[in-house]
Amino acid sequence: MLEHIGFTLLFGFTALLMLHVQAHAVQYRTLYAVPIFIVLLSMLYSVAHEWVRMVRRQCPKCIPPLVPTFVAVIVGSFLTVFLANPVGLGVVIASSLVGLGAAWLFPKWATAAFCGSFVGMLSPESFPAFHQLVLATIAAAGLFWAGAPVFIGFGGKLGTTAFFGCVVAAWLTGAPLLEAPLPSRQIAMLILFVAAISSAGAYVLSVRCKLGPVMGSALVGLFAGFVLPWLPMGMNGPLLAVVAFCASFAGMANTERMPTESHALLAGLIAGAVFVFASPSLGGAGGKLGTIAFASTLAAKPLGDLLILLATPHVKMARAFAAAFIGDGVRDR
What is the pTM (predicted TM-score) of this model? Predict the structure, then answer.
């Protein structure tokens, strides 16, 4: 029963964001709405597959202990708020530091603390009161606990959990979520590039370097938070730092969900495109970046497999042609 609730909430709030993304893409230019719609269909395919998998494979042992889980989420949330605002580190660096510290000191509870850090990324403009932070954190901790057996191994699940908590807190307290204009076309291209590199980078650190998903994402976020804001003003470095951290969540996926670096690059590109069209809606809610990554990871596996399937005959043909060409060259000599 718990996993059904967790599944429904994780999917429902991801769908909420993606419907906003689709609407903004249609409003901006119909041509851009087509690839977003394809991403949405691919995401729905993965969700349906996961639902069948959940029904067939119940995993009550996957649900973590209640009290330590809530404590870890709460500590991660409050510590991130403290580092981001009174200390003044900013949300990207603050969340990254919490993730790194938790992965190093308390690896068993690192994912819960990292999830809490995403709640702590909420905007003080939307959530100025302490009770709003408490409400968002408790709601996120509840979903983290209930949703543990579902969508295992997908990047962005922790952020989606935090997004649920923040949106629920906003609805219950009447907090206004922020709006922002769509980025310019030049900035959008930079967003796509940074997102693809960041997702692949986090994946390599997590899987190939065996640092784990929390450490891999946190290292990318820490680098982005310290380096990218120093880019020339016209490149909007602070925004690109946020994009890099967002895409790094997609790179937290495991090898079952994201078998290759090519899939990670594709997930990053999708995350970048979704980030662009998600800008006008639901701003200020912690976890929005992770929800973008979650939708992107859900969509990337089916799309990546389809692209590989379509490209395989052409790759084989190119290899055969190259082998024949090289062989003829050797015989001519």
Answer: 0.91
